[in-house]
Amino acid sequence: MLKSVSIIQISSLGLLLVVSFLFSGCQTKPSNPNEFSADIIIYGGTSAAVTAAVEAVQSGKSVLVVSPDMHLGGLSSGGLGYTDTGNKSTIGGLSREFYHRVWLHYNDSAAWKWQKHSEYGNKGQGTVAMDGENRTMWIFEPHVAEKVFEEFIAENKITVLRDEWLDRTSGVIVKNAKIESIKTLSGKTLTGKMFIDATYEGDLMAAAGVSFHVGREACSVYGETWNGVQADARHHGHYFKDEIDPYKIPGKPESGLLYGISPEPIAANCTGDNKIQAYCFRLCMSNHPDNRVPFPKPANYDSTKYELLGRVFDAGWREWFNKFDQIPNRKTDTNNHGPFSSDFIGMNYNYPEASYERRKEIIKEHEGYQKGLLYFVANDPRVPKEIQEEMQNWGLAKDEFQDNGNWSRQLYIREARRMLGVYVTSENDVLAKSEVRGSVGMGSYAMDSHNIQRYVTSEGFVQNEGDVGVHPQAPYAISYGSIVPKREECQNLLVPVCVSSSHIAYGSIRMEPVFMILGQSAAVAACKAIDIDHAVQDIPYEVLQKELINRGQVLSLPEVSH
Questions:
Q1: What SS3 class is residue 99?
Q2: Are 73 and 47 a contacting pair, CB within 8 Å?
Q3: What are the phi and psi torsion angles at 111 (to 5°)?
Q4: 86 and 184 in contact (C-beta within 8 Å)?
Q5: CA gap 233, 218 in Å, rounded
Q6: Considering the chain, what percentage of its residues have pLDDT values greater than 70?
Q7: Predicted local distance difference test score (pLDDT) of residue 128
Q8: Does 74 map to a domain?
Q9: Which of 404, 429, 458 is the last residue of a domain?
Q10: 353-363 tens-digit pLDDT
Q11: Are 417 and 201 in contact (CB under 8 A)?
Q12: Residue 462: which of 340, 366, 375, 303 has the closest Cα?
């Protein structure tokens, strides 16, 4: 049955274009308009969800994307435009195609509205932003990323059911270790042969009964050095270099701790816990007078929440603008930097397993904190004059996230659930201390964990903990076993985002180019499992490897230029 479907595309001009097309994913005429079926059901709206869907269609399979989000692309279209890439030669397949299409966009002079291309130049992370030789561009505006993702969807005639949320309580039907169908809160039922969980949270994986872990493992669990509590790590400068008093009235513990400081004593190094690295929004700011919106004062603004930052300024810290990373058209991808910044440290521990309602509250809490922070720096007399005057030249980019008050729609979920699959990637794989078999893609970025808690030291000063950045000497392979559950738990599910990995190894894997790589590889595996009627765990690797290489995936070091 050919089913008429409409999708919404976001053009580079911000116009809404409704594109109607015929989709062959529904294999039989549904007796109920809320019943759908396809070979592959993908849950999520991330960059990995899009590449998985494109690969499924190009491999001749019907596919349905069930997205909780209205806008596709996750962090890649949500403000993270200053891409964390590592060794770019490890990025192949549809992931590289994405960055190629970004390059094509910026090759058009019409793309440069708020500045000339020559004024931007080729700023980037150890390489040019616009790589003419390899026809890729790694730094981009949020709306450009969304445009590319929507083009992928439209060109491949992919049906996306948007604003559809998995019924996490009773909406996943599993029989004989296989998912038969999933149901959304709106009442839609989706039946498929294979399923892919491409969410940042791993909700489908968890609802299907697949094992997972939240938090940091003790170093002893996987024989690691950089997992668990790392109170002595000082890898990025995101710690208090000066002795800052943590109490509301300096020198008086009885006055209570300043906002955001935990009273909990720090555990011994390498101790595991249920805490996760901090979240924030990657902000798209502008300093163009015609394209900036002044930082709004939040309704629940409380300047005392930022007293600790005032004390950091008082100590002489002046690095406030060091992560206003420039993207095209006089905009930024602004990220956390320094001892007190946009990371809302310690305020996300229950997010991974929280209800939808609680997650929305946590997201609003992060938004309120971060908006308050911006307003504080731009307006409060506690802020040094030179910083405040410069901050007042900045605002939210007026032409981004226009349906959300110019604020990113995607909180940076740096880490949530992580599957306990066939194989658990650890720092020993990232640091080439062990042999990885069955590669389905490569990583190369540092094992990067943002701070996890803010506490009082034994000397009585405030300090952050959890900031780790350890670089691999060379790119490393990611095992197929890390994107598939244990056979006895689920035989037709792949998980390319909440992969089976230790906390610290995930700090390297969790980069958007890698998610796109793993999304495509997951779809190749799903298609092959259908073709040979095997569980995903039983696909001969040699067969999968050949298919991946044919699609341009980079699987091993000999293919990487150092």
A1: helix
A2: yes
A3: -75, -15
A4: no
A5: 16
A6: 92
A7: 59
A8: no
A9: 404
A10: 999 999 999 99
A11: yes
A12: 340
Cβ-based neighbours of 453, under 8 Å, separated by 6 or more? 262, 264, 266, 275, 345, 346, 464, 465, 466
Is the pLDDT at 219 greater than 90, yes or no? Answer: yes
User: Which pairs from 294-298 meet CB under 8 Å and 24+ separation?
Assistant: 294/378, 294/395, 295/371, 295/374, 295/375, 295/378, 295/394, 295/395, 295/396, 296/371, 296/375, 296/405, 297/371, 297/375, 297/379, 298/368, 298/371, 298/372, 298/375
- Residue 117's φ and ψ, nearest 5 degrees, are -60, -40
Of 404, 419, 445, the position where a domain reaches its end is 404
Nearest alpha carbon to residue 283 among 174, 198, 406:
406
For residue 28, what pLDDT is reported?
Answer: 43
What separation, in Å, do the N-terminal and C-terminal C-alpha atoms of the chain show? Answer: 50
CA distance 511 to 85: 7
Is 550 among the domain residues? no
In single-letter form, the type of residue at position 470 comes to V
Q: With CA atoms as reference, report the closest residue to 307 among 255, 265, 348, 354.
A: 255
Entry field: residues in the chain:
562
Residue with tokens 């005032």: 310
Q: Determine the Cα–Cα distance for residues 215 and 274; give it in Å rounded to an integer.
A: 4
| Mean of pLDDT over the chain | 93
Whether the Cβ atoms of residue 519 and residue 198 lie closer than 8 Å to each other: yes
In 184-323, which ranges are E strands?
189-197, 212-213, 247-249, 252-257, 285-286, 292-293
Q: Which of 221, 217, 198 is nearest to 483 (CA)?
A: 198
pTM: 0.93
127 falls within a domain: yes
The tokens for 210 are: 């697949």
What is the domain count for the chain? 2
Determine the Cα–Cα distance for residues 10 and 31; give it in Å rounded to an integer: 33
Token code pair at residue 550: 């044919």
Half-sphere exposure of 145 (CA within 13 A, CB side): 31
Contacts for 403 with CB less than 8 Å, ≥ 6 apart: none
Q: What is the DSSP letter of 296?
A: P
Residue 394 domain boundaries:
285-404
Evaluate whether residue 80 is within a structural domain.
no
Q: Judge whether 165 and 360 are in contact, CB under 8 Å.
A: no
CA atoms within 13 A on the CB side of 111: 20
Flag whether pLDDT at 375 surpasses 90: yes
